[in-house]
Amino acid sequence: MAILGNIIKGVIDLSETLFSETNHIEAQKNTLKQLLEKAKNTQFGKHYNFEAILASENMEAEFAKTIPYFDYNKINEEWWHKIKEGENDVTWPGTLSYFAMSSGTTGKSSKRIPVTDDMIEAIRKSGIKQVLSLKNFDLPADFFEKEIMMLGSSTDLEKNESFLEGEISGISASNIPFWFKGYYKPGEEIAQIDDWDERVLKIAKRAKDWDIGALSGIPSWIELMLQKVIEYHNLNHIHEIWPNLQVYTSGGVAFGPYEKSFNALMGKEVTVIDTYLASEGYIATQVRPETDAMQLNTEHGIYFEFVPFKPEYINEDGSLAQDAPSISLSQVELNQDYVLIISTVSGAWRYIIGDTIEFTNIERAEIKITGRTKFFLNTVGSQLSVNKMDDAMRFLEEQFATKIPEYTICAKRGDDGEFYHFWYLGSEKQDLDTEAVAKKLDETLKNANKNYKVARSKALNGVKVNLVSPEMFHEWNAKNKKKGGQVKMERVMKEEKFSEWEKFVNKN
């Protein structure tokens, strides 16, 4: 009998009677007040007079009116560089222990984002919320005695002056509580290996020693790890070596594009739980099985604002116009894409994280990620967002009986001087008729997006498709950034980057 598992499950079930349903609008007002109170004596707080914002009749409106939007470059050039130079109390009180390194999806150079002790605590609280929500997923007691494979970046953080630096997944894993270490795999020794291929080989060699009940990590890298384990042990599927695997906690990107290829590695159905952990904080987590939407972590150190995602508010380079209006959680609507703005206990203020979201349930504060502001393709008025592109990939998978976990697109002029959308699809099958694929892709986008349909009748001349192996995308990431961790493929490329990509594909 799973005695420990029953105890843990009992504690989780009991939490439902101990904790009342969150009023997310009130929680957000309290969070903003707490942020302003704690940071009012920082350099940033004094510069923007947080005291006056706190004393105003409408704190949320005054906050939005007083403080400009910041992207990484703006806040780094004006404020965060002071932290790196050794100054204290810059945008958050006290000293700093960590910087999260994030190359994201849009560039080779890493961003260095402050991670305070308060943020680590906020991430821990959001993690507890995720664990407690498992009561909703009807998992058996013995699940809570199994081990958890957390595949993030290396926990061997680099020392840079007085700071430790690494990706947020590595920072989080290096701060796991002592009681969790017995459950945590691949364990501290393997997790510290920086070289991705070496780390995954070590995991494959040790896989038979572990009883894995849950996986956690970015889908593309989880898949590669599972493929290596299956290949190393000559298996048909992963459940032959980890028969008790029941849960996969996805994150970093939408799981939809990877669903078909992920399920092909399984021997039986696995519960997929979406999470939204960014370098800037733990944004949201799925808390119930009836939906794959995620609930914003409204109580744990992050204040959210939302800008309607409309072309007139987005600059040519994907940045946000300073005069774009923001709204609070109390004002959002369903079926509207929003640019996500966050202010956090790490001293990010009205920070443009770069993602777009939509609400699926306002009362529960549940959202879905719909894309990236820089991956919004609006050439000649086509107005394509990543979620529309993802949906098109799922349609092509069904139509051509293949798997397409990766893709990228560029809008540019062809040899005839006309505008086309040039697609590279990472398809399991590369012998498909590319003209037939292009025709189906074009048709489904026309049906899904009226702006695209209008653009196709005017300046957008057509669609061109190339099929390559999904592995090509992984190797591209390895060349330009590195394998594993938080690294994600850019879905939309500018012409200069796309030219590099095409040279890379042709060479390989």
TrEMBL record:
Cite the InterPro entries for this sequence: GH3, GH3_C, GH3_M
Which parts of the sequence belong to the GH3 middle domain?
Answer: 299-362
Q: Which residues form a coiled coil?
A: none
Q: Which residues form the GH3 C-terminal domain?
A: 391-496
Top-level division of the source organism's lineage: Bacteria
Q: What is this protein called?
A: GH3 auxin-responsive promoter family protein
Q: Which organism is it from?
A: Tamlana crocina
